[in-house]
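Need tokens for this chain, all 441 residues.
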Amino acid sequence: MDTTLQDPNPCRVIGVLDDGIESLSMTALAYLRNADVVIGGARTLSLFEREFKAGAVRHDLTGQLKMVPEWVRAARNDHLACVVLATGDPLCHGIAPYLAQHLCVQALDILPNLSTLQLACARIGLAWQDARIVSVHARDAGEWTRGATPAHGLYALAQALRAHARLLVLTSPDNSPDRIARLLLAEGLGDDFHMAVAENLLQPEERVLAELGAREAADMRFADLNVVLLWRTTPAPRAVRFGLADAEFVQRQPEKGLITKQEVRAVSLARMQLRQDSTVWDIGAGSGSVGLEAARLCPQGHVYAIEKNEADFAIAGQNHAAFGISNYSLHHGKAPEGLDAWPDPDAVFVGGSGGELATLIQQVLRRLRPQGTLVMNFVTLENLATATATLQSMEDQGVEWDVLQLQAARSKPILHMHRMAAENPVWIVCARSVAKAGEKQ
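Here are the structure tokens for all 441 residues:
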């Protein structure tokens, strides 16, 4: 950007801290003292009110974020000096990107300050150049439960805990450190992370709790103004992402074997054409093997799984608990009931249909996102016939499909030698809506 083209009367977005004018440069303080219009949160306006010039108009943005661009436009149209006060660095989970989106960039002059996250790291000597910053500074997310969907306000944090060794967390009074500690415990990570909480930074009542365990922090109460630092104390497991052996999954006993076998699972996942951020449906989850591997292959996506059999649902839950992932939601029910509440998928796997196969295929193909794929596994001629007949009837709607028969044989010992023992043949049926293929992704 050519800064020489900046507007002659930009809105100054000034980063401030809770020690008031002590944290401001002389330039920033001069802009504040000469502002005709000052915009900020109620607490910030109160902190700096002695610095406003007589007659300066104040706008409290608390609960009125959408009004801020309009207030800025009005001030600039009237050729008034306008200042927006933001906490810390306005470009780090602050208001500056929002203003840049709704106003031209040249209309802003950003004067950053230290982030409260930087200050917290400095207090305990934690290097932060490789840390992941996560904000849960939002509406009350509620307590975290295992298998929660991306709609939950703590979802991004749960995902980041699986991928990063150091995290810096911007909190809120509702999404507090004790709630974050309970998330760690719910995800089985309570012994894997240390936690630090920095409260009321740069205020007389500042307090820094440098090394907390999740169990200890889960029962504590903290000041409303705080940030949380998390760092791993045990190495993250180097999990296999694809092609797990069947024995790695809990399976139904004594009828062991209700699982999509490794060879079929690998081909089915390949045909699903998964991406890092794919939304996946796993219908008839059984032991959960396909959906759980899909979740590992889509670390920025989410898998929604459903299983009607109560015993298999419990087994899939055990496998979920052992897998160390936070992007998998398992539901007990019979498809297609409940699918309307799920987001449109990029890929769908059907391992069981509960007798509603034709209806299920039609519903899935209506919901698939552009270039999405439906993959189905069948071991009976009847289900294969139902699927192919349904897909054939939809060809005039732009549905394209194919069938792959897969039969594997595994070596088995016989005396001092080995023989090949055949697994049951499986038909893998794939379908996609080519009518959507040309649409923009």
